[in-house]
Design a protein that fits this description.
heterodimer, A: 226 residues, mainly alpha, 0% strand, B: 269 residues, five-stranded mixed β-sheet, 66% helix, 13% strand, elongated
Protein backbone atom coordinates (compact mmCIF):
# COMPACT_ATOMS: atom_id res chain seq x y z
CA UNK A 1 0.00 0.00 0.00
CA UNK A 2 2.84 2.37 0.90
CA UNK A 3 4.60 1.53 -2.35
CA UNK A 4 1.40 2.22 -4.19
CA UNK A 5 1.00 5.65 -2.53
CA UNK A 6 4.62 6.52 -3.30
CA UNK A 7 4.03 5.44 -6.88
CA UNK A 8 0.94 7.60 -7.22
CA UNK A 9 2.64 10.63 -5.66
CA UNK A 10 5.65 10.22 -7.96
CA UNK A 11 3.46 9.67 -10.98
CA UNK A 12 1.26 12.70 -10.28
CA UNK A 13 4.35 14.85 -9.60
CA UNK A 14 5.94 13.87 -12.95
CA UNK A 15 2.59 14.36 -14.65
CA UNK A 16 2.20 17.82 -13.11
CA UNK A 17 5.64 18.84 -14.34
CA UNK A 18 4.98 17.54 -17.86
CA UNK A 19 1.53 19.12 -18.09
CA UNK A 20 3.02 22.43 -16.89
CA UNK A 21 5.75 22.16 -19.52
CA UNK A 22 3.13 21.40 -22.19
CA UNK A 23 1.08 24.38 -21.01
CA UNK A 24 4.12 26.67 -21.33
CA UNK A 25 4.93 25.25 -24.79
CA UNK A 26 1.32 25.86 -25.85
CA UNK A 27 1.16 29.49 -24.74
CA UNK A 28 4.48 30.68 -26.19
CA UNK A 29 3.74 32.86 -29.27
CA UNK A 30 0.07 32.76 -28.16
CA UNK A 31 -1.24 35.19 -30.86
CA UNK A 32 0.36 33.05 -33.59
CA UNK A 33 -0.72 29.67 -32.24
CA UNK A 34 -3.55 27.80 -33.91
CA UNK A 35 -6.90 27.56 -32.09
CA UNK A 36 -6.28 23.82 -31.66
CA UNK A 37 -3.08 24.47 -29.73
CA UNK A 38 -4.87 27.10 -27.66
CA UNK A 39 -7.55 24.58 -26.67
CA UNK A 40 -4.77 22.14 -25.91
CA UNK A 41 -3.16 24.75 -23.65
CA UNK A 42 -6.34 24.82 -21.52
CA UNK A 43 -6.33 21.03 -21.48
CA UNK A 44 -2.81 21.02 -20.09
CA UNK A 45 -3.54 23.80 -17.63
CA UNK A 46 -6.50 21.95 -16.13
CA UNK A 47 -4.59 18.65 -16.15
CA UNK A 48 -1.72 20.27 -14.27
CA UNK A 49 -4.17 21.88 -11.79
CA UNK A 50 -5.99 18.52 -11.37
CA UNK A 51 -2.75 16.71 -10.56
CA UNK A 52 -1.64 19.44 -8.18
CA UNK A 53 -5.04 19.32 -6.44
CA UNK A 54 -4.67 15.54 -6.06
CA UNK A 55 -1.26 15.98 -4.42
CA UNK A 56 -2.62 18.81 -2.27
CA UNK A 57 -5.47 16.64 -0.96
CA UNK A 58 -2.99 13.87 0.00
CA UNK A 59 -0.78 16.45 1.71
CA UNK A 60 -3.75 18.00 3.64
CA UNK A 61 -4.91 14.54 4.74
CA UNK A 62 -1.44 13.71 6.01
CA UNK A 63 -0.66 17.02 7.70
CA UNK A 64 -4.09 17.81 9.20
CA UNK A 65 -5.31 14.24 9.59
CA UNK A 66 -8.43 14.90 7.50
CA UNK A 67 -10.15 12.23 5.39
CA UNK A 68 -10.98 14.13 2.21
CA UNK A 69 -11.50 11.61 -0.59
CA UNK A 70 -8.83 11.93 -3.29
CA UNK A 71 -11.43 11.28 -5.98
CA UNK A 72 -13.09 14.61 -5.15
CA UNK A 73 -10.57 16.41 -7.35
CA UNK A 74 -10.91 13.72 -10.00
CA UNK A 75 -14.66 14.17 -10.53
CA UNK A 76 -14.33 17.94 -11.04
CA UNK A 77 -11.33 17.45 -13.32
CA UNK A 78 -13.13 14.79 -15.35
CA UNK A 79 -16.09 17.06 -16.11
CA UNK A 80 -13.83 19.96 -17.12
CA UNK A 81 -11.88 17.51 -19.30
CA UNK A 82 -15.10 16.28 -20.90
CA UNK A 83 -16.24 19.81 -21.80
CA UNK A 84 -12.77 20.71 -23.10
CA UNK A 85 -12.63 17.49 -25.15
CA UNK A 86 -15.97 18.25 -26.83
CA UNK A 87 -14.89 21.87 -27.50
CA UNK A 88 -11.52 20.66 -28.81
CA UNK A 89 -13.00 18.10 -31.22
CA UNK A 90 -15.82 20.45 -32.15
CA UNK A 91 -13.22 22.97 -33.26
CA UNK A 92 -11.17 20.31 -35.09
CA UNK A 93 -14.20 19.21 -37.10
CA UNK A 94 -15.18 22.83 -37.81
CA UNK A 95 -18.23 22.88 -35.57
CA UNK A 96 -19.71 19.58 -36.70
CA UNK A 97 -21.15 18.99 -33.22
CA UNK A 98 -24.56 20.56 -33.62
CA UNK A 99 -27.20 20.92 -30.88
CA UNK A 100 -28.00 17.20 -30.91
CA UNK A 101 -24.37 16.41 -30.12
CA UNK A 102 -24.45 18.72 -27.14
CA UNK A 103 -27.61 16.93 -25.92
CA UNK A 104 -25.77 13.63 -26.40
CA UNK A 105 -22.79 15.11 -24.54
CA UNK A 106 -25.12 16.10 -21.67
CA UNK A 107 -26.62 12.59 -21.47
CA UNK A 108 -23.12 11.07 -21.56
CA UNK A 109 -22.06 13.42 -18.76
CA UNK A 110 -24.96 12.25 -16.58
CA UNK A 111 -24.14 8.56 -17.27
CA UNK A 112 -20.50 9.29 -16.62
CA UNK A 113 -21.36 11.05 -13.34
CA UNK A 114 -23.48 8.10 -12.16
CA UNK A 115 -20.67 5.64 -12.95
CA UNK A 116 -18.17 7.89 -11.23
CA UNK A 117 -20.27 8.22 -8.08
CA UNK A 118 -20.82 4.43 -8.09
CA UNK A 119 -17.05 3.91 -8.30
CA UNK A 120 -16.62 6.34 -5.44
CA UNK A 121 -19.18 4.63 -3.20
CA UNK A 122 -17.90 1.12 -4.05
CA UNK A 123 -14.23 1.86 -4.65
CA UNK A 124 -12.04 -0.35 -6.78
CA UNK A 125 -8.62 0.66 -8.02
CA UNK A 126 -9.50 0.88 -11.70
CA UNK A 127 -13.10 1.68 -12.44
CA UNK A 128 -15.74 1.76 -15.15
CA UNK A 129 -15.49 5.53 -15.56
CA UNK A 130 -12.01 5.21 -17.03
CA UNK A 131 -13.23 2.71 -19.64
CA UNK A 132 -15.98 5.16 -20.61
CA UNK A 133 -13.46 8.01 -20.70
CA UNK A 134 -11.05 6.19 -23.01
CA UNK A 135 -13.92 5.00 -25.21
CA UNK A 136 -15.16 8.59 -25.49
CA UNK A 137 -11.74 9.81 -26.62
CA UNK A 138 -11.40 6.91 -29.11
CA UNK A 139 -14.86 7.74 -30.49
CA UNK A 140 -14.08 11.45 -30.81
CA UNK A 141 -10.74 10.73 -32.47
CA UNK A 142 -12.30 8.30 -34.96
CA UNK A 143 -15.00 10.86 -35.61
CA UNK A 144 -12.26 13.40 -36.41
CA UNK A 145 -10.65 10.91 -38.85
CA UNK A 146 -14.01 10.29 -40.47
CA UNK A 147 -14.49 14.04 -40.85
CA UNK A 148 -10.97 14.33 -42.29
CA UNK A 149 -11.76 11.65 -44.90
CA UNK A 150 -14.47 13.92 -46.26
CA UNK A 151 -12.45 17.14 -45.89
CA UNK A 152 -8.94 16.11 -46.88
CA UNK A 153 -6.52 19.04 -46.97
CA UNK A 154 -4.07 19.69 -49.82
CA UNK A 155 -0.94 19.41 -47.69
CA UNK A 156 0.32 16.23 -46.05
CA UNK A 157 -1.86 15.52 -42.98
CA UNK A 158 1.14 14.06 -41.21
CA UNK A 159 2.54 17.58 -40.93
CA UNK A 160 -0.65 18.99 -39.41
CA UNK A 161 -0.37 19.65 -35.68
CA UNK A 162 -4.11 18.83 -35.29
CA UNK A 163 -3.61 15.39 -36.82
CA UNK A 164 -0.48 14.72 -34.75
CA UNK A 165 -2.23 15.65 -31.49
CA UNK A 166 -5.33 13.56 -32.25
CA UNK A 167 -3.19 10.59 -33.29
CA UNK A 168 -1.25 10.79 -30.01
CA UNK A 169 -4.56 10.99 -28.07
CA UNK A 170 -5.82 7.95 -29.99
CA UNK A 171 -2.63 5.98 -29.27
CA UNK A 172 -2.93 6.78 -25.58
CA UNK A 173 -6.59 5.90 -25.25
CA UNK A 174 -6.36 2.72 -27.33
CA UNK A 175 -3.70 1.43 -24.92
CA UNK A 176 -5.59 2.68 -21.84
CA UNK A 177 -8.82 1.08 -23.03
CA UNK A 178 -7.10 -2.30 -23.17
CA UNK A 179 -5.51 -1.81 -19.75
CA UNK A 180 -8.79 -0.75 -18.11
CA UNK A 181 -10.68 -3.65 -19.64
CA UNK A 182 -8.13 -6.14 -18.28
CA UNK A 183 -8.06 -4.45 -14.91
CA UNK A 184 -11.47 -5.88 -13.88
CA UNK A 185 -10.22 -9.41 -14.30
CA UNK A 186 -6.77 -8.81 -12.83
CA UNK A 187 -8.08 -7.08 -9.73
CA UNK A 188 -10.63 -9.85 -9.20
CA UNK A 189 -8.14 -12.70 -9.59
CA UNK A 190 -4.73 -11.47 -8.51
CA UNK A 191 -4.96 -8.12 -6.77
CA UNK A 192 -2.17 -6.97 -9.14
CA UNK A 193 -3.82 -3.65 -9.78
CA UNK A 194 -0.65 -1.74 -8.89
CA UNK A 195 0.94 -3.26 -12.04
CA UNK A 196 -1.85 -1.80 -14.11
CA UNK A 197 -1.30 1.56 -12.44
CA UNK A 198 2.39 1.40 -13.25
CA UNK A 199 1.94 0.49 -16.90
CA UNK A 200 -0.76 3.13 -17.26
CA UNK A 201 1.56 5.77 -15.72
CA UNK A 202 4.40 4.79 -18.04
CA UNK A 203 2.22 5.00 -21.15
CA UNK A 204 0.74 8.36 -20.08
CA UNK A 205 4.21 9.78 -19.45
CA UNK A 206 5.40 8.43 -22.81
CA UNK A 207 2.50 10.09 -24.65
CA UNK A 208 3.02 13.34 -22.73
CA UNK A 209 6.59 13.29 -24.05
CA UNK A 210 5.20 12.77 -27.56
CA UNK A 211 2.93 15.80 -27.01
CA UNK A 212 5.99 17.76 -25.91
CA UNK A 213 7.81 16.86 -29.14
CA UNK A 214 4.75 17.81 -31.25
CA UNK A 215 4.40 21.20 -29.55
CA UNK A 216 8.14 21.82 -29.67
CA UNK A 217 8.19 21.13 -33.42
CA UNK A 218 5.15 23.37 -33.90
CA UNK A 219 6.92 26.09 -31.94
CA UNK A 220 10.05 25.77 -34.06
CA UNK A 221 7.96 25.93 -37.24
CA UNK A 222 6.35 29.14 -35.97
CA UNK A 223 9.72 30.56 -35.03
CA UNK A 224 11.13 29.91 -38.50
CA UNK A 225 8.10 31.13 -40.39
CA UNK A 226 7.68 34.35 -38.35
CA UNK B 1 -4.01 -15.83 -15.34
CA UNK B 2 -4.71 -17.18 -11.83
CA UNK B 3 -1.42 -18.00 -10.13
CA UNK B 4 0.63 -15.90 -12.54
CA UNK B 5 3.61 -14.02 -11.21
CA UNK B 6 3.62 -10.19 -11.23
CA UNK B 7 6.30 -10.26 -13.95
CA UNK B 8 4.11 -12.39 -16.20
CA UNK B 9 1.15 -10.07 -15.69
CA UNK B 10 3.40 -7.09 -16.36
CA UNK B 11 4.62 -8.56 -19.66
CA UNK B 12 1.12 -9.58 -20.71
CA UNK B 13 -0.40 -6.15 -20.07
CA UNK B 14 2.53 -4.36 -21.73
CA UNK B 15 2.30 -6.66 -24.75
CA UNK B 16 -1.46 -6.12 -25.01
CA UNK B 17 -1.07 -2.35 -24.80
CA UNK B 18 1.61 -2.44 -27.49
CA UNK B 19 -0.69 -4.48 -29.73
CA UNK B 20 -3.39 -1.83 -29.30
CA UNK B 21 -0.83 0.89 -30.11
CA UNK B 22 0.28 -1.01 -33.23
CA UNK B 23 -3.31 -1.45 -34.37
CA UNK B 24 -3.88 2.28 -33.95
CA UNK B 25 -0.63 2.85 -35.81
CA UNK B 26 -1.88 0.78 -38.73
CA UNK B 27 -5.07 2.82 -38.83
CA UNK B 28 -3.11 6.08 -38.85
CA UNK B 29 -0.65 4.87 -41.50
CA UNK B 30 -3.56 3.72 -43.67
CA UNK B 31 -5.13 7.14 -43.24
CA UNK B 32 -1.92 8.98 -44.18
CA UNK B 33 -1.40 6.76 -47.24
CA UNK B 34 -5.00 7.26 -48.32
CA UNK B 35 -4.63 11.04 -48.06
CA UNK B 36 -1.40 10.92 -50.09
CA UNK B 37 -3.15 8.92 -52.79
CA UNK B 38 -6.09 11.33 -52.91
CA UNK B 39 -3.69 14.30 -53.03
CA UNK B 40 -1.80 12.75 -55.95
CA UNK B 41 -5.07 12.15 -57.78
CA UNK B 42 -6.11 15.76 -57.15
CA UNK B 43 -2.80 17.05 -58.52
CA UNK B 44 -3.13 14.82 -61.60
CA UNK B 45 -6.69 16.03 -62.15
CA UNK B 46 -5.57 19.65 -61.82
CA UNK B 47 -2.78 19.06 -64.35
CA UNK B 48 -5.27 17.52 -66.75
CA UNK B 49 -7.60 20.50 -66.29
CA UNK B 50 -4.74 22.93 -66.97
CA UNK B 51 -3.73 20.99 -70.08
CA UNK B 52 -7.35 20.93 -71.21
CA UNK B 53 -7.65 24.69 -70.68
CA UNK B 54 -4.43 25.24 -72.65
CA UNK B 55 -5.75 23.13 -75.49
CA UNK B 56 -9.01 25.10 -75.50
CA UNK B 57 -7.07 28.38 -75.69
CA UNK B 58 -4.88 27.00 -78.49
CA UNK B 59 -7.94 25.74 -80.36
CA UNK B 60 -9.70 29.06 -79.89
CA UNK B 61 -6.69 30.98 -81.25
CA UNK B 62 -6.32 28.59 -84.16
CA UNK B 63 -10.02 28.80 -84.91
CA UNK B 64 -9.81 32.63 -84.87
CA UNK B 65 -6.87 32.45 -87.24
CA UNK B 66 -8.77 30.15 -89.63
CA UNK B 67 -11.80 32.48 -89.49
CA UNK B 68 -9.58 35.51 -90.28
CA UNK B 69 -8.00 33.66 -93.19
CA UNK B 70 -11.44 32.72 -94.48
CA UNK B 71 -12.70 36.34 -94.26
CA UNK B 72 -9.48 37.60 -95.91
CA UNK B 73 -9.91 35.03 -98.66
CA UNK B 74 -13.61 35.95 -99.13
CA UNK B 75 -12.74 39.65 -99.32
CA UNK B 76 -9.87 39.07 -101.72
CA UNK B 77 -11.49 36.48 -103.98
CA UNK B 78 -15.04 37.80 -104.21
CA UNK B 79 -15.29 41.45 -103.12
CA UNK B 80 -11.78 42.34 -104.30
CA UNK B 81 -12.26 40.69 -107.69
CA UNK B 82 -15.71 42.23 -108.15
CA UNK B 83 -14.48 45.72 -107.22
CA UNK B 84 -11.66 45.31 -109.75
CA UNK B 85 -14.22 44.35 -112.40
CA UNK B 86 -16.40 47.34 -111.44
CA UNK B 87 -13.36 49.60 -111.78
CA UNK B 88 -12.80 48.26 -115.29
CA UNK B 89 -16.50 48.74 -116.07
CA UNK B 90 -16.39 52.33 -114.85
CA UNK B 91 -13.27 52.86 -117.02
CA UNK B 92 -15.16 51.55 -120.06
CA UNK B 93 -18.16 53.78 -119.27
CA UNK B 94 -15.88 56.78 -118.84
CA UNK B 95 -14.27 56.19 -122.20
CA UNK B 96 -17.46 55.39 -124.12
CA UNK B 97 -19.75 57.79 -122.28
CA UNK B 98 -23.29 57.08 -121.13
CA UNK B 99 -24.17 55.59 -124.52
CA UNK B 100 -22.64 52.21 -123.52
CA UNK B 101 -25.76 50.91 -121.77
CA UNK B 102 -24.47 47.34 -121.73
CA UNK B 103 -21.39 48.36 -119.71
CA UNK B 104 -23.58 50.35 -117.34
CA UNK B 105 -25.94 47.41 -116.88
CA UNK B 106 -23.03 44.94 -116.28
CA UNK B 107 -21.43 47.26 -113.79
CA UNK B 108 -24.74 47.66 -111.99
CA UNK B 109 -25.13 43.86 -111.80
CA UNK B 110 -21.56 43.58 -110.49
CA UNK B 111 -22.29 46.25 -107.88
CA UNK B 112 -25.38 44.35 -106.72
CA UNK B 113 -23.36 41.12 -106.50
CA UNK B 114 -20.64 42.92 -104.52
CA UNK B 115 -23.23 44.29 -102.11
CA UNK B 116 -24.66 40.76 -101.72
CA UNK B 117 -21.17 39.34 -101.13
CA UNK B 118 -20.47 41.95 -98.46
CA UNK B 119 -23.83 41.10 -96.85
CA UNK B 120 -22.97 37.39 -96.91
CA UNK B 121 -19.57 37.94 -95.32
CA UNK B 122 -21.13 40.21 -92.72
CA UNK B 123 -23.91 37.66 -92.02
CA UNK B 124 -21.32 34.88 -91.62
CA UNK B 125 -19.38 37.02 -89.18
CA UNK B 126 -22.41 38.02 -87.12
CA UNK B 127 -25.88 36.76 -88.08
CA UNK B 128 -28.26 39.70 -87.71
CA UNK B 129 -31.27 37.35 -87.48
CA UNK B 130 -29.88 36.00 -84.25
CA UNK B 131 -29.78 39.50 -82.83
CA UNK B 132 -33.23 40.43 -84.12
CA UNK B 133 -35.33 37.24 -84.09
CA UNK B 134 -33.53 34.80 -81.82
CA UNK B 135 -31.88 31.40 -82.02
CA UNK B 136 -34.68 29.41 -83.67
CA UNK B 137 -35.09 31.83 -86.56
CA UNK B 138 -31.33 32.24 -87.01
CA UNK B 139 -30.83 28.47 -87.32
CA UNK B 140 -33.83 28.28 -89.65
CA UNK B 141 -32.30 30.98 -91.85
CA UNK B 142 -28.87 29.32 -91.75
CA UNK B 143 -30.36 26.00 -92.92
CA UNK B 144 -32.28 27.78 -95.70
CA UNK B 145 -29.07 29.38 -96.90
CA UNK B 146 -27.20 26.08 -96.81
CA UNK B 147 -30.01 24.46 -98.72
CA UNK B 148 -30.03 27.24 -101.32
CA UNK B 149 -26.25 27.19 -101.84
CA UNK B 150 -25.60 23.44 -101.68
CA UNK B 151 -28.87 21.96 -102.91
CA UNK B 152 -28.88 19.52 -99.99
CA UNK B 153 -32.27 18.81 -98.40
CA UNK B 154 -32.71 20.08 -94.85
CA UNK B 155 -35.40 18.82 -92.49
CA UNK B 156 -36.14 21.24 -89.70
CA UNK B 157 -38.06 20.93 -86.46
CA UNK B 158 -37.77 23.94 -84.19
CA UNK B 159 -39.83 24.34 -81.02
CA UNK B 160 -38.35 26.86 -78.62
CA UNK B 161 -41.14 28.02 -76.37
CA UNK B 162 -40.04 27.61 -72.78
CA UNK B 163 -37.10 29.88 -72.25
CA UNK B 164 -34.30 31.84 -73.81
CA UNK B 165 -30.52 31.67 -73.72
CA UNK B 166 -28.46 34.84 -73.25
CA UNK B 167 -27.23 36.59 -76.42
CA UNK B 168 -23.67 35.39 -75.97
CA UNK B 169 -24.82 31.81 -75.31
CA UNK B 170 -27.12 31.92 -78.35
CA UNK B 171 -24.21 32.91 -80.59
CA UNK B 172 -21.99 30.14 -79.19
CA UNK B 173 -24.75 27.58 -79.69
CA UNK B 174 -25.41 28.89 -83.21
CA UNK B 175 -21.70 28.46 -84.06
CA UNK B 176 -21.74 24.89 -82.76
CA UNK B 177 -24.70 23.93 -84.97
CA UNK B 178 -23.05 25.77 -87.90
CA UNK B 179 -19.80 23.85 -87.38
CA UNK B 180 -21.64 20.50 -87.21
CA UNK B 181 -23.50 21.25 -90.47
CA UNK B 182 -20.24 22.39 -92.11
CA UNK B 183 -18.61 19.12 -91.07
CA UNK B 184 -21.53 17.14 -92.49
CA UNK B 185 -21.20 18.99 -95.80
CA UNK B 186 -17.40 19.03 -96.05
CA UNK B 187 -16.34 15.69 -94.61
CA UNK B 188 -19.40 13.42 -94.51
CA UNK B 189 -20.62 14.30 -98.02
CA UNK B 190 -24.21 14.12 -96.76
CA UNK B 191 -27.18 14.44 -99.10
CA UNK B 192 -29.72 15.07 -96.36
CA UNK B 193 -29.44 16.78 -92.99
CA UNK B 194 -32.06 17.06 -90.28
CA UNK B 195 -31.93 19.60 -87.46
CA UNK B 196 -34.23 19.33 -84.46
CA UNK B 197 -34.30 22.01 -81.77
CA UNK B 198 -36.69 21.42 -78.87
CA UNK B 199 -36.64 22.88 -75.39
CA UNK B 200 -38.06 22.01 -71.99
CA UNK B 201 -38.43 24.30 -68.97
CA UNK B 202 -34.80 23.75 -68.06
CA UNK B 203 -32.81 23.01 -71.21
CA UNK B 204 -32.55 23.03 -74.99
CA UNK B 205 -31.94 19.79 -76.82
CA UNK B 206 -30.62 19.82 -80.37
CA UNK B 207 -30.26 16.77 -82.60
CA UNK B 208 -28.30 17.18 -85.83
CA UNK B 209 -28.36 14.13 -88.08
CA UNK B 210 -26.89 13.52 -91.52
CA UNK B 211 -26.89 10.54 -93.89
CA UNK B 212 -23.26 10.87 -94.96
CA UNK B 213 -20.16 8.86 -94.07
CA UNK B 214 -20.75 8.14 -90.42
CA UNK B 215 -18.17 8.45 -87.69
CA UNK B 216 -18.17 8.28 -83.90
CA UNK B 217 -16.29 10.14 -81.22
CA UNK B 218 -16.77 9.56 -77.49
CA UNK B 219 -16.99 13.08 -76.03
CA UNK B 220 -17.34 11.74 -72.52
CA UNK B 221 -13.72 10.63 -72.55
CA UNK B 222 -11.64 13.68 -71.72
CA UNK B 223 -8.14 12.25 -71.70
CA UNK B 224 -5.37 14.16 -73.34
CA UNK B 225 -4.98 11.68 -76.21
CA UNK B 226 -8.67 11.78 -76.93
CA UNK B 227 -8.64 15.60 -77.09
CA UNK B 228 -5.65 15.59 -79.40
CA UNK B 229 -7.08 12.94 -81.62
CA UNK B 230 -10.49 14.56 -82.12
CA UNK B 231 -9.24 17.38 -84.33
CA UNK B 232 -9.73 21.13 -84.15
CA UNK B 233 -13.36 21.21 -85.32
CA UNK B 234 -14.67 18.68 -82.80
CA UNK B 235 -12.46 20.06 -80.08
CA UNK B 236 -13.86 23.57 -80.63
CA UNK B 237 -17.40 22.15 -80.56
CA UNK B 238 -16.70 20.28 -77.34
CA UNK B 239 -15.03 23.35 -75.76
CA UNK B 240 -17.97 25.59 -76.67
CA UNK B 241 -20.52 23.14 -75.26
CA UNK B 242 -18.51 22.89 -72.04
CA UNK B 243 -18.47 26.67 -71.88
CA UNK B 244 -22.27 26.64 -71.96
CA UNK B 245 -22.36 24.01 -69.21
CA UNK B 246 -23.98 21.60 -71.64
CA UNK B 247 -23.40 18.07 -72.85
CA UNK B 248 -22.61 16.62 -76.24
CA UNK B 249 -22.70 13.03 -77.36
CA UNK B 250 -22.82 11.10 -80.62
CA UNK B 251 -24.76 8.09 -81.68
CA UNK B 252 -22.27 5.20 -81.81
CA UNK B 253 -24.30 3.59 -84.63
CA UNK B 254 -22.47 4.95 -87.70
CA UNK B 255 -23.99 2.88 -90.49
CA UNK B 256 -26.71 5.46 -91.13
CA UNK B 257 -24.59 8.60 -90.90
CA UNK B 258 -23.69 10.80 -87.95
CA UNK B 259 -26.00 12.01 -85.19
CA UNK B 260 -25.08 14.64 -82.61
CA UNK B 261 -27.11 15.17 -79.43
CA UNK B 262 -26.55 18.52 -77.72
CA UNK B 263 -28.11 19.55 -74.41
CA UNK B 264 -27.72 23.07 -73.07
CA UNK B 265 -29.22 24.13 -69.72
CA UNK B 266 -30.98 27.50 -69.49
CA UNK B 267 -29.39 28.09 -66.12
CA UNK B 268 -25.70 27.33 -66.41
CA UNK B 269 -24.75 24.88 -63.66
Amino acid sequence: MVIEIIHWITYHSVDTCLYSLLFILSIVYWPKRSVTVRYFAFFNLFSAIGNMAFLLVIWINRVYGTTIHVNLTGIIYTYVELILAILFYNHLTKGIFKTQYWVLGGILSVIYGVIYIYSWVYPVSITYDLVVESLLFIGLSLHYYWWMLNNLPEESIFKLVDFQLVSAILFLNAALFFIYLWSFYLVKVNQYDYIIGEIRSNIVILVLLVFTIILWKDLRRLKFTS
Amino acid sequence: MEGSTPAEVYILITFGSLVMIFLTGFLIVFFIKYQQKVSEQRIRLKQLEIEYQQLIIEASLESQEIERRRVASDLHDSVGAMLAAIRLGIGTIARAGTSNTEAISDTKILLDETIESVRKISRDLMPSTLELLGLGEAIHEMCDRFEATTGIAFKLQIQLTNGELGKKEQLIFYRVVQEIINNALKHAKASSISVSLIDTATEIEAIVKDNGKGFFHNFERQEKDSIKSMGLGLFTISGRINLLGGKIRMDPEISSGTTYYLTIPYEKV
